Amino acid sequence: MLTAVVLAAGEAKRMGELKQLLEWEKENTILGKTIDNLLAAEIVDEELKVVIGAQKKRIRSYLEKKYYSELKSGILKIIENDDYKRGMMSSVKTALYELPQDNQYLLFTLADKPFIGPEIYKEFYQKCLELKSDIFLPEYQGQKGHPVLIKNCFREEALKLKGEGGLRNLFAVFPDKIFHYSSDQPEITVDLDLKKDYQKYKENNYKLRVLKD
């Protein structure tokens, strides 16, 4: 059983504006595309949690309009992190507080990952189950990427962690529990942190491999 978490609480200071709601494709946003891809993968059988913080009213309004049916059915859940300025780990912990009893794995990804398509999510989850990985960390040419999958048994340990570095804190504590999965998908490492990156990749949505290489 899988619960997925999209970390979308950041202020996007390097972008200069709230990147979660920047247009990505016609009638869709960066955050919307990321959520759409996860839903289309059809691997989330418990909840897809979207953690929001900065400009939370604006993002909540957007999500409630776009995902009315998913929110009503319970597959999508909006979680507010009022401590988002303390860093990504605060959002991770916020997502961990309430989980379905049967939850087996947790999948974490970032809001600015519109390139990661449904097939990648499906491949990684299936491989994680096949290997019975404790912590599944995908990499492209040695660079860590997303999504990250962890067993629910690490929930209590994660809640005890301090710092701002997100799941990197957990990796540091349990390096021997990590399965480093080598992927040939450059999409998993691309972040949209700067305006120039956003403009470049948005304009060349279907030429990611050429741009990355």
Automatic annotation (TrEMBL):
Keywords: Nucleotidyltransferase, Transferase. It comes from the Bacteria. InterPro entries: MobA-like_NTP_Trfase (IPR025877), Nucleotide-diphossugar_trans (IPR029044). It holds the Pfam family NTP_transf_3. CDD domains: GT_2_like_f. One of its GO terms (molecular function) is nucleotidyltransferase activity. Residues 4-172 form the MobA-like NTP transferase domain. This is Molybdenum cofactor cytidylyltransferase. It comes from Halanaerobium saccharolyticum.
